[in-house]
């Protein structure tokens, strides 16, 4: 009798253990960075769709650390439960940054034969990295045209400063403003391209012929700074360019008081609130300004191999994590990750129309969801692989305030000014911090840009950072 009871106990134990294991195999803990644009990850349309398609129970775990490497170092040094880690927004790594983790054997090799799934769903390989946006209401109020040269640009800024374009009777207009939260938000970088090829994303290196050149070593770079110093000293370039966060820039540009004349950004959606069509329609793009010597360039961004997701070696459910990520990287999953819910936020085009980029249409957007509070997708966080025919095949939906339409018009206008080849130099943070600080100090007039002693000291230190010998 005791033996029968014991056998029954073992049977029940193994049945329960098996159920528990099956339940554990069905749960995938997905770590993703906190984003103000994702309203509720647990109820997110994309997460629920992925759960339904894979048959997995997805448990989002929010990462509150802001530095990706710090989080990963802590993750791999502990037993923190995360079966998959999604990257994106400001929480990013490039492929080359994974090498140290591969050497430490803390990453799982995935079904694609690599240690990560990529994020290549937002841009084509070479695209415009910074666009200037101008307040059309102010232009119309003062009967001004969109500036085409640095000379015309300065005249427009003066009119914005002096002639009350917002019509409230107060001198509260901000002609030109930006932020230090990214090169794309700083108009200094845009204007330097009217004097020389200025690519801060590649440590200010550029290709001329077959040679790599360094912009800060050229007299044209210094001349561009001198022009910017004029704008700053005449209160045309606002001092808050060097203190504001992107969030502060957003707030002042979107103010109902209509305070800002010109700003720069990667996408208009990075700054303007898309829920307000009036503000979205207020700004149009300005083509790269032609400088005094005819220079006219746009910052060209080359899409690097960005990491979309990884699976830790110590993950408890690696099989489930890989299944989940494979569905994300599929074309169907990637289109939801990029555009939202099919039939609601976008639909396939019949192909008879021409896209915003002049190519056969593939997608018609109904709602633009990027960089706004929503719960349809993860705002670019995580792996995706959107085929180029969809990235270049977005058709205008007839709404002038649609972000896809506004950005595409700017992108098409800037194409003639993009570099065909970009430098192979990587971003050197220490060098760039030094050069950025000196450049911005000169713009603000802390030092005289024509002080040869200061300039030569700068050149010596920059050559030291670059490992070059000084001739003087």
TrEMBL record:
Please provide the record's keywords in A-Z order: Signal
Q: What is this protein called?
A: ABC-type glycerol-3-phosphate transport system, substrate-binding protein
Signal keyword on record: yes
Q: Does the keyword Signal apply?
A: yes
Signal peptide position in this chain? 1-17
What top-level branch of life does the organism fall under?
Answer: Bacteria
Give the InterPro entries listed for this entry: SBP
């Amino acid at each position: 009798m005791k033996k029968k009871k014991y056998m029954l106990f073992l049977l029940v134990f193994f049945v329960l253990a098996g159920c528990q294991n099956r339940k554990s195999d069905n749960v995938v803990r997905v770590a993703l960075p906190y984003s103000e644009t994702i309203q509720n990850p647990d109820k997110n349309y994309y997460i629920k769709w992925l759960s339904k398609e894979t048959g997995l129970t997805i448990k989002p775990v929010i990462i509150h650390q802001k530095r990706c490497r710090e989080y990963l170092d802590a993750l791999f040094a502990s037993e923190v439960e995360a079966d998959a880690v999604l990257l994106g927004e400001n929480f990013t790594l490039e492929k080359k940054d994974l090498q140290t983790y591969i050497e430490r054997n803390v990453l799982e090799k995935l079904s694609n034969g690599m240690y990560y799934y990529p994020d290549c769903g937002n841009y084509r390989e070479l695209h415009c990295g910074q666009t200037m946006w101008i307040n059309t209401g102010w232009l119309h109020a003062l009967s001004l045209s969109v500036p085409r040269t640095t000379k015309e640009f300065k005249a427009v800024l003066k009119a914005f400063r002096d002639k009350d374009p917002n019509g409230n009777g107060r001198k509260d207009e901000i002609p030109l403003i930006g932020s230090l939260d990214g090169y794309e938000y700083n108009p200094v970088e845009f204007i330097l391209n009217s004097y020389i090829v200025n690519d801060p994303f590649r440590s200010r290196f550029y290709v001329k012929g077959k040679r790599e050149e360094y912009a800060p070593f050229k007299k044209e770079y210094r001349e561009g700074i001198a022009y910017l110093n004029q704008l700053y000293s005449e209160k045309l370039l606002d001092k808050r360019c060097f203190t504001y966060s992107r969030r502060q820039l957003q707030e002042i540009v979107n103010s109902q008081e209509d305070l800002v004349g010109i700003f720069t950004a990667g996408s208009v959606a990075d700054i303007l609130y898309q829920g307000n069509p009036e503000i979205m329609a207020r700004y149009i793009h300005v083509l790269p300004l032609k400088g005094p010597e005819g220079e006219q360039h746009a910052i060209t961004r080359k899409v690097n191999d960005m990491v979309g997701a990884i699976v830790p070696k110590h993950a408890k459910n690696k099989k489930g994590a890989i299944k989940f990520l494979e569905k994300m990287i599929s074309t169907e999953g990637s289109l939801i990750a990029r555009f939202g819910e099919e039939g609601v936020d976008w639909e396939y085009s019949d192909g008879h129309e021409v896209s915003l980029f002049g190519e056969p249409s593939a997608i018609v957007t109904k709602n633009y969801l990027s960089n706004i509070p929503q719960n349809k997708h993860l705002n670019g966080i995580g792996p995706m692989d959107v085929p180029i025919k969809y990235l270049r095949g977005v058709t205008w939906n007839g709404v002038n305030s649609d972000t896809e339409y506004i950005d595409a018009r700017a992108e098409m206008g800037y194409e003639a000014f993009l570099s065909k080849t970009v430098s192979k130099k990587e971003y050197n943070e220490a060098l760039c911090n030094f050069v950025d600080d000196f450049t911005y100090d000169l713009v603000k007039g802390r030092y005289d840009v024509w002080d040869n002693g200061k300039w030569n000291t700068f050149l010596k230190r920059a050559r030291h950072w670059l490992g070059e010998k000084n001739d003087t």
